[in-house]
Each structure stands twice: as C-alpha cells, then as structure tokens.
C-alpha cells in the first residue's frame, strides 16, 4: 500500500479528496448536500495536510489532518451585546498544540481490511512529527467511538467550545482526545474540569 501526504493541499488535491468523500463518506440514508452545509457551518477549518492511501494505484483511503493551538481554561471576553459571538480577547488558560483528524474515510468496498487502521496509524506518526501534544477529533461516539478507542482516543467529558462560521459559540458533540507527544498533557486535559477552547471550526 502506498501513501501520499500533501501539506497545505492545493485546490486540485482538495477536489480529489472531496470527490472521494462524496462517493464514500456517508451512509446510504444520509444526504450529501445536508452534510456539506454542516461542514460549511461547523467543520470549516483548513486542513494542514491530506493523506491519501492507494492500493494498486487505486485511491482507497483519505484523511484530513489538522494542527493548531487550543486553550485549556482561561477567560474569554465577549462584547456585552454579543454573548454568542467570537471572544474579543482570551486571557490566561494553557495553550496546547492539538493535532486532529477529520474526513477519515475508506472506500466502501474496501472496508474491514485494515485500511482505516493504516490511515490513523500514519496520521498519528505525522502528528508526532509535528510535535502535537494531543490529538483531537469530534466523532459520532456511538457509531465510531470503538474504532477510535483502539488508537488511544477517549471521550473528553468536559466542554469543548468552538465558533462556527457565523461566529456563534458551539459545543462539540462527541469530542475525543488521544496522547501524541505528551502523555502528561493528555492526562491533564482528560481529567480537567475546565473548558477546552478550540477556536474557529471544530476542524
Ligand atoms: C470508520 C472507517 C474509516 C473504518 O475503516 P476500515 O478500513 O473499515 O477499518 P479497519 O479495517 O482498519 O478496522 C480496524 C479495526 O477497527 C474495527 N472497526 C472498523 N470500523 C469500526 C467501527 N465503526 N466500530 C468499531 N470497530 C470498527 C475493525 O473490526 C478492525 O478491528 P480488528 O483489527 O480487531 O479486526 C470506515 O468504516 C469508513 O470510512 N466509514 C465511513 C466514514 C466515517 O464514518 N468515518 C469516520 C468519521 S468520524
């Protein structure tokens, strides 16, 4: 199996990934256009890289990788009449370099053959190279939680706050974190009662 990693992917690489996702990401009963509006509203962060996996030159797996500083705890200052909007200032809190996964997807007829495992395994290696402290993703935990558990991802019980593309404050529904470079930071975040501020976009 071959892999290709595109850091700061260009429009052509994003097109290839999106076409693959359109054909393979959703279950039969879900509708692509509805999914796209959710993506545009909540999951609009630009990927740091896209990873492609090929089997005999055929594209069989895609994942988006993200990286940015998030903040554990601290104070968010909002304008008085804009309680729901982006904070104008963040004070204190602890910056944590989070790497992340999004759009993890294996071609429909190639599932349960270990390709998903390879995608996450390679992704974790890359996040290590980027020196990320922890990995973060937002998943449908009921459906995919057990898949991510095997790579060290554990549901984060605290509040994960992000801002959607309209600037509205939102809570992540299925936040999961895993240790990458620092087990100590991972444990600290996991046990913390403080909010984790993700910034703009839930990846
Ligand atoms: C989730 C997904 C990426 C898994 O890919 P895959 O190639 O089928 O996974 P693998 O074959 O590598 O599975 C690795 C292991 O996880 C298990 N597994 C796979 N999907 C699972 C799931 N949804 N729940 C629990 N376990 C799962 C497999 O049984 C296997 O275990 P084993 O090594 O003990 O046999 C794939 O089903 C997919 O693309 N789904 C649609 C898109 C999606 O929902 N992505 C996740 C978005 S959060």
Concise account of the structure shown:
This protein has helices at 11-24, 32-42, 115-129, 141-149, 183-191; strands at 2-7, 49-55, 58-72, 75-77, 89-91, 94-106, 134-138, 154-155, 160-163, 169-171, 175-179, 196-200. With 203 residues, it is an alpha+beta fold.
Tell me what you see in this structure:
This protein is α+β, with helices and mostly antiparallel strands and 203 residues long. It has a single domain, classed as Aminopeptidase (3-Layer(aba) Sandwich). 29% of the residues lie in helices and 35% in strands. The protein has 5 helices and 12 strands. The chain has helices at residues 11-24, 32-42, 115-129, 141-149, 183-191, and strands at residues 2-7, 49-55, 58-72, 75-77, 89-91, 94-106, 134-138, 154-155, 160-163, 169-171, 175-179, 196-200. The longest helix has 15 residues, at 115-129. The chain is globular and about 55 Å long. The model has no long low-confidence stretch (mean pLDDT 94). The structure holds coenzyme A. The site of coenzyme A has 15 residues, from strand 6, helix 3 and helix 4. Residues 25, 104-106, 111-117, 139, 144, 146-147 line the site of coenzyme A.
Topology:
Blueprint: E1 2-7, H1 11-24, H2 32-42, E2 49-55, E3 58-72, E4 75-77, E5 89-91, E6 94-106, H3 115-129, E7 134-138, H4 141-149, E8 154-155, E9 160-163, E10 169-171, E11 175-179, H5 183-191, E12 196-200
Parallel strand pairs: 6-7, 9-12
Antiparallel strand pairs: 1-2, 2-3, 3-6, 3-12, 4-5, 7-11, 8-11, 9-10
The structure holds coenzyme A.
């Amino acid at each position: 199996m071959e892999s290709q990693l595109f850091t700061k992917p260009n429009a052509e690489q994003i097109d290839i990934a999106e076409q693959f996702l359109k054909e393979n990401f959703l279950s039969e009963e879900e509708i692509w256009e509805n999914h796209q509006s959710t993506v545009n509203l909540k999951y609009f962060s630009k990927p740091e890289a896209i990873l492609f996996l090929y089997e005999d030159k055929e594209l069989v797996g895609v994942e988006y990788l993200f990286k940015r500083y998030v903040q554990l705890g601290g104070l968010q200052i909002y304008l008085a009449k804009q309680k729901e909007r982006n904070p104008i200032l963040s004070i204190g809190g602890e910056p944590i370099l989070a790497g992340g996964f999004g759009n993890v997807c294996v071609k429909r007829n190639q599932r349960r053959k270990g390709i998903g495992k390879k995608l996450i395994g390679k992704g974790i290696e890359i996040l290590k190279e980027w020196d990320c402290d922890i990995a973060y993703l937002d998943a449908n935990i009921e459906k995919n939680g057990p898949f991510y558990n095997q790579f060290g991802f554990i549901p984060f019980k605290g509040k994960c706050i992000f801002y959607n593309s309209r600037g509205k404050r939102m809570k992540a529904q299925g936040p999961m974190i895993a240790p990458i470079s620092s087990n100590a930071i991972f444990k600290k975040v996991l046990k913390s009662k403080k909010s984790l501020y993700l910034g703009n976009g839930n990846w």
